[in-house]
Design goal:
The chain is of the alpha/beta class. The chain has helices at 17-26, 31-46, 50-69, 139-142, 165-185, 204-219, 227-252, 268-281, 285-290, 339-342, 394-397, 411-414, 476-504, and strands spanning 2-4, 12-14, 93-95, 127-132, 192-197, 261-266, 291-297, 314-315, 324-328, 330-332, 345-347, 352-354, 384-386, 429-431, 439-440, 446-448. Residues 1-20 are annotated as: Disordered.
Amino acid sequence: VFISGHSEREPTLTPSPQSVIAQAQRAEVSSMTLEATMNSARDLTAAGTALASLGKAAQLFRTLPSTLLTAPRGVCDQSRAGSPPDYSQLDSWLAHPERPIASRGVEDPNHLRTEGAKLPALGKRPCDCFYIVDTCYCPAESFAFLSDSAARRWNLLLGAAEGTPEHQLAAKVTEQMEFRAAVGGSCFNRTCRIFAPAYRQVSATAVAQNLPLLTKAVANNAECLSGPAADMRRALDIAYDDIRRAFVRFVDDQARAGRPFVLASHSQGTMHLLRLLQEEVETHPQRRDRFVHAYLAGFGVPLELFSKTLRRLRPTARADDVGTVSSWRTASWKHPDLHTFRMGAYHAGEGWKRVSGDMLTTSPITWASGPGAAPSRPAQYKGAMWPMPANMDPRDSEAGVLPSGCSLRFGHAAGRTRQALGYRVRELVPVDCGEVTAQADERGYVRVAPFPRDSLFSLTERDWLLYHEVDLALFHNNLQENVGLRVAAWRRATRSRRSRCVGGG
């Protein structure tokens, strides 16, 4: 039995593993689901310093019964997923250049900047960015809804009737999606107008517990998937179809005809973007002509895809190449290899496969890929940014004995309420990360030095996925610089190509 407690509460007894199993059985959680969860738990709690690992272990076993209760129940199908977002409506976009400044709690990424800085006018930005956010339908958002079916869905239900638990939960998750769009989308807003769709994303619990079952079934050549594996595939298809429809509207809009575009994503968003590249960019010559680069952070991109379903789009080789792809997962030199990222999956035409083999690993500082490249120099690092809420600071709520596991998302606060947290985000703040150098390793990570203890980002040492939350924010200014370089290179190449066509005609 673990002894644990919040800084805000008296210590409480935490259930033993045996009682967790008993509660899972009463909740009708399958043995396969429980096994996948426990395997993930061992991985997540082993990461980080000894003290952080102990705190995470205590917190995990304290919350594991509740987490298991957020596992999706029932069959996943379109009839239970609610209405798909209408991307002709501004409210279906987490980021959109038509949204007025200061029109919601979390400022649109198109307008986010540091205090006193100026962004180029939207009409003067030469490129557009389609950004896909990571998973925000997480246990912390669902804990307050355990008495309702809203907490146990495969996909986030958007468009529920106002006042229902489903509507309340969607409001919480949508606020987190807006916040995560601010984290990632703002990395490109000096060169690009940002478009980020809301979508019926798959819940974090569903991904953790059922994605391994799906990839195992596909690997075993199961012709007819059934049970949780089939449900997982349908849940991913629902999320992907929302993203695909949003992208088609974005890329084929005649008002943006001929404009270059970049693609960017994080975590679950990267799973969907990798499929989108194969199905909606690789096979469309006119779209390829406008495609500048794809930044896929947080999940693995197997190199073997570039000899199979991505033959025209290439891995990046330098900072200004175009028609290319970069990818990375961030960890400190002290962090272990998180097998959780190897549980990630990618779609390769014939179905979802588990990430394995060599992965594309790009330094977001030098833009060299692969473990043979030299580390970056401190002077090459341009700085980190974070959309800090004016009314909240995670250091106030996440510094207790037990970590929430998702500190920069205010995990403790999110777990205690049915309401959105009420972020007031108006600007970006610089984050001191110490002396930063980066180098790709042979395990598929970009390794950096540990953050200084007084850095905002040092909170992530106690997170389940460590530096995963800051894959983009840590390199904010390098990303801003790089997208400018690539768009300028695309414009030069396009002018040269057009000149040759005119001269040849």
